[in-house]
């Protein structure tokens, strides 16, 4: 399976995302923010970091790049699965590809730690542990999005509404999440639950 | 701009120039012959250090070799800026140390911080913590560990030492020397008036009125820094790139003159060619500006277009600002005129003082016999900010970005990172023992070295090299001089004895105000390696495991001067320090590594802050498990004696857990390793010698006491 | 074309909790300065722009606020002033 990891100026989790995806069997390329076509890829990952310094707001400025236009076409044409992790999730929300917005944590502080989550996939619920690392990760949305949520905090660290840690778009081809599955692939102390998440992505790609 | 060159120095300069300085040259020399850039008071002492085995110890940063890879690491202090503007001060401190690593073509992969505050100065703590968080997290370099110490000696004098680690194939290392017939290019943020005079500022005592000092502080931009890192690493791959220097203290002046000095060539800078953020800057302002996020390159003319295109792709500005040629002159041009022409050697070889302090020995060697009952002592210790968990800090810093981190902060004595490049692991730690150094700067420094050494060993790493940051008061003061000489001798002696080279370092003087000065604060950053994940050791014990102490046994005659419990319980600082024993340290290291190999050791911690009981409590909190056992060899001690035996800090001790009591005991006996069996990890109570504590109650205090204070108003 | 100078403020919508404001409220209260300051926080921007006339400048400023400076899901904005320069 071919995956693209999008690199904006200021993205900083591209290396570990690529490494984790390769471990999980993906064939991975970096694509730059000026890329105009993503049709070669079965999945597109927007990885973590501080695109454009997160100036104005997290993820705000990235939405004006060519690759986000390309991404909109990619989604429109139902080519593959789009995944936004952390800053990627923020970008997807800012570009209104996913519902809601991510605002500053209730603590006003950056939070870096492992969190317990409830993963709901294909009607099954399971507890997993993934690391989080963000300052603007509190999910806010005033629509009813409950049916699209696939990941919830068990011990809400940032004040997210309805404990939302990750959700789909209406067509279930776009996923965004604040936790970092790519950091939970190699090291015992961060757990291996990230591998499971990437298996789900493979599943989603096959589902078509 | 204030000029801070005293008469004696002016004479020295003009003697070497064989003429008077002009206005611009006064600025040039006030920066380059400042303590901060010129190391006037420290240079001679630093020559003592053992650098055998270090890679490029005289470059921007030195390193060690692991496989075919160079691991470069260095510490830097940003104490003065943090005192007046903690947020920007901490941020640009990180920015600066990253550039030192980057200049060698090494990708920065980790940061550590060693911080000291007075706990009453919340705005400094908050500002520094946030500055590190906003800057480090954004440029994508993991903040993997470090230490925080609280002491009122640091009131108004916070110590902010930061260490960066980078990696590059040894054959790809780029040095800072220019060559003749190169062009000089400046990449990054447009030069502005910010931070002008920073080097001179860091070379004086802090004024009582701080608003005055704010103009010297630089402003960081982590987004530009992230782009600068990527662009620089791409540029340094090119063949025609000859040398690279970061633009730090004394900005363009210091970086370009060093390049010419090391390359033994002349350099001519045309200040009209720079990209500026403000047009009406004087030559002195341009030369001395400490605008952040800039790098200087010496290039062959042919590659400039390629370099220019890389810069453009990262949306960074670049300008050709000068050239090099055969000779030894440093020439500054502006508005078509030559403003200064001085020999490079005079700029870069400042006058160096010989330190010959008179002996001073009025330290407090009195022992502490104060007492309090053990239960209240335990409670006080675990909720004291210096002993308590530093999670409030570490959670604000992204310790896992980059995906190399294998051990979160406080999980073991050292941070563990995987080098995916060659499958090795590196361990890094940063330690200081300022109260011990105050009591005895020689033994205190050795103890600091050993603290780092044992932190690495207890995490499974073979120590390879060290960096240091020496923070002192005014070097013209006899006591400070005396401590400085003793500290550098101690570091030289012990690094020789252990064969662990000093690869890099930094000195920060003038950490004093009119009314107070800091302890001699020696920060050691040490780096080690191991070959596989199986060799990593956590400071975590498991249920039903047996706990052993190996190494020295403390007794009523032990020297435990400077132990933390005396400070926390009685606000007492005194006593003699314990001496170290090289053979024992090596034997203990070998025992730990061998026990690990035989699967007889599951978790370990070195015995340091809080002594035996303090270290045991830390592991139990980490492991979320209770304990039942015996820590004292008889029951008849009085309270003061119990405190000494349980909390006293001596050298050469570790505790570890095992799931095989007999094999472990046999190994220790067979190998002549001094040991004591302490007890078993069970339940949710901590029980020893008739005392009983509730694990969760103590743990809660340990985890939250810092947060409870700092998040309140 | 004329040149204009705009000042705008972006704040969180009323239904989004403003953490920084709450912290400031608490601080002022604890310091016995003010019992109920009811802070709200936001971001302040100034910028220059070219437009045919004031109304055109207003439309352009509105567009910039909506599309670039704020996120309508959680934020609102207010054009403080637009003046010809």
Let me know the CATH homologous superfamily of chain A. Class I glutamine amidotransferase (GATase) domain
The parts of chain A where pLDDT drops under 50 for at least 5 residues are: none
Lateral arrangement of strands in the main beta sheet of chain A: 2-1-3-4-11-10-9-6-7
- What composes the largest sheet of chain B? 7 strands, mixed
**How many E-type strands of chain B?**
24
Order of helices and strands of chain A: EHEEHEHEEEEEEEH
Oligomer: heterotrimer
Radius of gyration of chain B: 26 Å
Q: How are the elements arranged and paired?
A:
The complex is a heterotrimer of chains A (208), B (713) and C (85).
Chain A: E1 2-7, H1 14-23, E2 27-32, E3 43-46, H2 66-76, E4 81-85, H3 87-94, E5 101-103, E6 111-121, E7 124-134, E8 138-140, E9 149-153, E10 164-168, E11 174-177, H4 193-207
Parallel strand pairs in A: 1-2, 1-3, 3-4, 4-11
Antiparallel strand pairs in A: 5-8, 6-7, 6-9, 9-10, 10-11
Chain B: H1 7-17, H2 23-32, H3 35-38, H4 43-46, E1 62-66, E2 69-77, H5 79-84, H6 86-102, E3 107-117, H7 122-138, E4 142-150, E5 159-169, E6 183-188, H8 198-201, H9 222-235, E7 241-246, H10 251-263, E8 266-270, H11 283-288, E9 294-299, H12 304-313, E10 318-325, E11 329-334, E12 337-343, H13 344-348, H14 374-383, H15 391-394, E13 415-419, E14 424-432, H16 434-439, H17 441-458, E15 462-471, H18 478-498, E16 502-508, E17 521-530, E18 546-551, H19 564-570, H20 582-597, E19 603-606, H21 611-623, E20 627-629, H22 639-647, E21 653-658, H23 661-670, E22 675-680, E23 685-688, E24 691-694, H24 695-710
Parallel strand pairs in B: 3-4, 8-11, 15-16, 20-23
Antiparallel strand pairs in B: 1-2, 2-5, 3-5, 6-9, 6-10, 7-9, 8-10, 11-12, 13-14, 14-17, 15-17, 18-21, 18-22, 19-21, 20-22, 23-24
Chain C: E1 2-12, H1 19-30, E2 42-51, H2 54-69, E3 75-84
Antiparallel strand pairs in C: 1-2, 1-3
Tag the structure with descriptive keywords.
heterotrimer; B: 713 residues; alpha+beta; Phosphoribosyl-aminoimidazole Synthetase, Chain A, domain 2; seven-stranded mixed β-sheet; 24 helices; globular; C: 85 residues; Mth169, Chain: A; three-stranded antiparallel β-sheet; 2 helices; 3 strands; elongated
3D architecture notes:
The complex is a heterotrimer of chains A (208), B (713) and C (85). By secondary structure, chain A is of the alpha/beta class. Chain A has helices spanning 14-23, 66-76, 87-94, 193-207; strands at 2-7, 27-32, 43-46, 81-85, 101-103, 111-121, 124-134, 138-140, 149-153, 164-168, 174-177. Chain A has one domain: 3-Layer(aba) Sandwich (Rossmann fold), CATH 3.40.50. In chain A, 21% of the residues lie in helices and 30% in strands. Among the domains of chain B are: 57-333, PurM-like C-terminal domain (Phosphoribosyl-aminoimidazole Synthetase, Chain A, domain 2, Alpha-Beta Complex); 538-713, Phosphoribosyl-aminoimidazole Synthetase, Chain A, domain 2 (Alpha-Beta Complex), CATH 3.90.650. Helices cover 35% and strands 23% of the residues of chain B. In chain B, helix 9 (222-235) packs antiparallel against helix 12 (304-313). Helix content of chain C is 33%, strand content 36%. Chain C is elongated, with a radius of gyration of 16 Å. The mean pLDDT of chain C is 92. Classes of the chains: A alpha/beta (208), B alpha+beta (713), C alpha+beta (85). The interface between A and B is medium-sized, with 33 and 36 residues.
């Amino acid at each position: 399976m071919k995956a693209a990891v999008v690199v904006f100026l200021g993205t900083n989790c591209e290396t570990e995302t690529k490494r984790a995806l390769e471990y999980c069997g993906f064939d991975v390329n970096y694509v730059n923010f000026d890329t105009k076509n993503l049709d070669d890829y079965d999945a597109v990952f927007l990885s973590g970091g501080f695109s454009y310094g997160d100036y104005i707001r997290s993820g705000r400025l990235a939405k004006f790049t060519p690759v986000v236009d390309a991404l909109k076409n990619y989604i429109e044409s139902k080519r593959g699965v789009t995944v936004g992790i952390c800053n990627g999730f923020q970008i997807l929300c800012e570009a209104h590809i996913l519902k809601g917005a991510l605002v500053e944590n209730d603590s006003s502080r950056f939070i870096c730690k492992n969190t317990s989550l409830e993963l709901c996939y294909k009607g099954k619920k399971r507890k997993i542990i993934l690391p989080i690392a963000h300052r603007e990760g509190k999910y806010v949305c005033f629509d009813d999005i409950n049916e699209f949520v696939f990941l919830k905090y068990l011990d809400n660290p940032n004040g997210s509404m309805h404990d939302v840690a990750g959700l789909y778009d209406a067509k279930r081809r776009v996923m965004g999440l604040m936790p970092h599955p790519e950091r939970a692939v190699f090291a015992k102390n961060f757990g291996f639950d990230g591998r499971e998440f990437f298996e789900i992505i493979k599943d989603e790609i096959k589902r078509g | 701009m204030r000029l801070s060159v005293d008469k004696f120095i002016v004479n020295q300069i003009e003697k070497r120039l064989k003429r008077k300085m002009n206005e611009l040259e006064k600025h040039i020399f006030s920066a380059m012959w400042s303590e901060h850039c010129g190391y006037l008071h420290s240079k001679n002492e630093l020559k003592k250090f053992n650098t055998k085995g270090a890679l490029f110890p005289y470059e921007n940063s030195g390193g060690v070799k692991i496989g075919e890879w160079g691991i470069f690491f260095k510490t830097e202090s940003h104490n003065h800026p943090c005192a007046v503007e903690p947020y920007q001060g901490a941020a640009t401190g990180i920015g600066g140390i990253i550039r030192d690593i980057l200049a060698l073509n090494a990708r920065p992969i980790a940061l550590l911080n060693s911080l000291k505050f007075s706990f009453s100065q919340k705005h400094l703590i908050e500002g520094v913590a946030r500055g590190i968080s906003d800057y480090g997290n954004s440029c994508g370099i993991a903040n993997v560990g470090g230490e925080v110490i609280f002491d009122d000696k640091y009131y108004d004098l916070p110590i902010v030492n930061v260490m960066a680690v980078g990696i590059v194939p040894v054959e790809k290392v780029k040095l800072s020397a220019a060559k003749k017939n190169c062009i000089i290019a400046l990449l990054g943020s447009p030069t502005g008036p910010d931070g002008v005079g920073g080097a001179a500022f860091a070379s004086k005592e802090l004024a009582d009125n701080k608003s005055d000092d704010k103009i010297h502080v630089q402003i960081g931009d982590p987004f530009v820094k992230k782009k600068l890192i990527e662009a620089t690493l791409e540029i340094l791959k090119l063949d025609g790139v000859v040398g690279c220097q970061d633009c730090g203290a004394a900005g363009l002046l210091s970086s370009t003159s060093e390049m010419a000095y090391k390359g033994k060539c002349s350099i001519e800078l045309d200040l009209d060619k720079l990209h500026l953020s403000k047009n009406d800057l004087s030559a002195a302002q341009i030369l001395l500006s400490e605008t952040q996020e800039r790098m200087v390159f010496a290039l062959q003319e042919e590659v400039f277009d390629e370099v220019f295109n890389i810069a453009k792709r990262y949306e960074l500005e670049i300008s050709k600002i000068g050239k090099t040629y055969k000779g030894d002159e440093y020439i500054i041009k502006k508005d078509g005129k030559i403003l200064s022409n001085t020999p490079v050697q005079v700029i870069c070889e400042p006058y160096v003082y010989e330190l010959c302090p008179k002996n001073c020995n009025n330290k407090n060697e009195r022992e502490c016999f104060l007492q309090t009952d053990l239960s209240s002592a335990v409670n006080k210790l675990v909720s004291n900010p210096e002993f308590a968990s530093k999670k409030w800090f570490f959670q604000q810093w992204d310790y896992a970005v980059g995906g190399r981190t294998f051990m979160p902060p406080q999980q073991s004595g050292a941070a563990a990172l995987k080098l995916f490049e060659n499958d090795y692991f590196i361990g890094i730690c940063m330690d200081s023992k300022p109260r011990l150094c105050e009591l005895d700067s020689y033994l205190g420094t050795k103890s600091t070295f050993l603290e780092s050494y044992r932190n690495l060993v207890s995490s499974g790493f073979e120590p390879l090299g060290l960096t240091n940051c020496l923070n002192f008061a005014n070097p013209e003061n006899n006591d400070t001089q005396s401590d400085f000489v003793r500290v550098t001798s101690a570091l030289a002696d012990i690094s020789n004895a252990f064969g662990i080279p000093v690869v890099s370092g930094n000195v920060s003087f003038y950490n004093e105000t009119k009314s107070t000065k800091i302890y001699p604060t020696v920060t050691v950053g040490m780096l080690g390696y191991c070959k596989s994940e199986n060799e990593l050791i956590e400071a975590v014990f498991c249920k039903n495991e047996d706990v052993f102490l190996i190494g020295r046994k403390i007794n009523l005659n032990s020297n435990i001067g400077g132990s933390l419990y005396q400070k926390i319980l009685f606000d007492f600082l005194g006593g003699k320090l314990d001496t170290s024993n090289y053979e024992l340290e090596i034997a203990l290291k070998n025992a730990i590594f061998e026990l690990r190999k035989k699967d007889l050791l599951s978790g370990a911690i070195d015995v340091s802050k809080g002594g035996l009981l303090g270290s045991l409590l830390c592991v139990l909190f980490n492991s979320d498990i209770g304990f039942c056992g015996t820590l004292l060899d008889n029951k008849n001690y009085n309270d003061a004696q119990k405190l000494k035996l349980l909390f006293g800090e001596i050298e050469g001790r570790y505790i570890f857990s095992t799931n095989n009591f007999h094999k472990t005991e046999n190994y220790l006996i067979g190998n002549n390793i001094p040991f004591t069996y302490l007890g078993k990890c069970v339940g949710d109570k901590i029980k020893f010698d008739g005392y009983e504590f509730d694990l969760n109650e103590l743990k809660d205090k340990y985890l939250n006491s810092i947060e409870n204070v700092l998040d309140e108003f | 074309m004329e040149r204009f100078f705009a000042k705008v403020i972006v704040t969180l919508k009323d239904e989004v909790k403003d953490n920084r404001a709450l912290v400031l409220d608490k601080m002022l209260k604890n310091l016995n300065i003010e019992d109920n300051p009811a802070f709200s926080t936001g971001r302040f921007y100034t910028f220059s722009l070219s437009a045919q006339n004031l109304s055109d400048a207003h439309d352009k400023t509105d567009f910039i606020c909506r599309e670039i400076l704020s996120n309508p899901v959680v934020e609102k904005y207010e054009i403080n002033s637009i003046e010809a320069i």
